Amino acid sequence: MPAAEPDLHLLQGTLDLLVLRALSTEPRHGYGVARWIEERSDDELRVEDRALYVALHRLEARGWIAAEWGISDNNRRAKYYELTAKGRSQLALRTSMWTRYAEAVFKVLQAVPA
After folding, report:
1. H/E element holding 49?
2. Could you tell me the pTM of the whole model?
3. How far apart are CA 103 and CA 38, in angstroms?
4. In a domain, 2, yes or no
């Protein structure tokens, strides 16, 4: 029987980038952000509630997202988050940085041992 693959855990700083990306197309409430990330990663990335809400509050405090109360699809009161102009700039910057980082890591992983 093959060993089970370990769960993928989000690297520190990655959650902020993923939340910004999830909010780049439309406002979403917290559950919607978590589901968007999980669906886009084919359920490889799971976002813990506490970590998500800490990230949302941190991004709001930095002015990268704004929040407004609204009604969810199931007719419940929910806080909806959306990107601000500052958040869009950060998304572009951090996407570029993360892409460079990931490409460098892949180069090392694919390098022929000396």
Report:
1. helix 49-61
2. 0.86
3. 23
4. no
C-alpha distance from residue 111 to each of 62, 77, 104, 114 (Å): 39, 52, 11, 9
Residue 55 maps to which CATH number? 1.10.10.10
- Size (the chain), residues: 114
Give the C-alpha separation, 40 to 34, whole Å: 10
Under 8 Å between Cβ of 65 and 84 = yes
Instruction: Map tokens 């460079």 to a residue.
Output: 100
**Block mean pLDDT (10 aa), the chain, length 114:** 58 88 97 96 93 96 97 92 98 96 94 88
Q: What is the count of structural domains for the chain?
A: 1
Domain, as residue range, for 47: 14-110
